[in-house]
Amino acid sequence: MAGSGAHSIAIDECMSLAYVGEIAQEHHVGFLGNLHVTAALFEETEEAAADAQRCLREGQRFPGYVFGLGGPLTQPIPPSRLDAAIATLFTQARGS
């Protein structure tokens, strides 16, 4: 995908940000991802705020990284879990 001529690519929650970051950097494209939607929002087996911090920590190492969901929201979720991820994003953005 990175060599397709696109300016950026979106990745799902199964892809490693570090792996995709290296490829995106090599091809000079941006990339978006990859909050673990399934575990953090649907199954509630991961803390949404902690996973958002993971994304930001791993993604910020690469130019062109954009925080985003690692998949579609295909079922109802507890709004408080998404709020926690968004609050983490804003807190980190203000601190950097």
Percent range for helical residues?
A: 40-55%
Helix-strand string: EHEHHEH
**In percent, how much strand structure appears in the residues?**
5-15%
Number of domains: 1
Give the low-pLDDT segments.
none
Largest sheet: 3 strands, parallel
Work out the radius of gyration: 13 Å
Mean pLDDT over the residues = 91
Task: Tell me the number of helical segments per DSSP (H or I, 4 or more residues long).
Answer: 4
Q: Note the overall shape.
A: globular
Biggest sheet strand line-up:
1-2-3
Q: Tell how many strands the DSSP assignment holds.
A: 3
Descriptive account of the structure:
This protein is an alpha/beta fold. It has one domain (8-95). The protein is 48% helix and 15% strand. The chain contains four helices and three strands, in the order βαβααβα. It has a three-stranded parallel beta sheet. Strand 1, helix 1 and strand 2 form a beta-alpha-beta unit. The protein is globular. The N and C termini lie far apart (30 Å).
